[in-house]
User: Fold this.
Amino acid sequence: MKTAVDQVLSGKKRKINSRFEAMSGHYLFEPEFCNVASGWEKGIVEKNVRDRRTSIWHHAKDRRWASWDELNAWLAEQCRQTWSELNHPE
Assistant:
């Protein structure tokens, strides 16, 4: 997929392509786009991801797991816990 958006409309409205629409339906998420030329909106999200990733791996550095499945289960739980602690705008 080259791009998710076929046409930029007013504000945050977009005409998305059919492949992206199918993917968002499959993974059950609602696309939310930034305003045009508003890079600060994207930066906030990326900083939150970087901070959470650093925090999770900081807790993981002294641990050992018996298998990849065990590590993946621990990471999934850490992600769910972090997500529940975040303040969401809605």
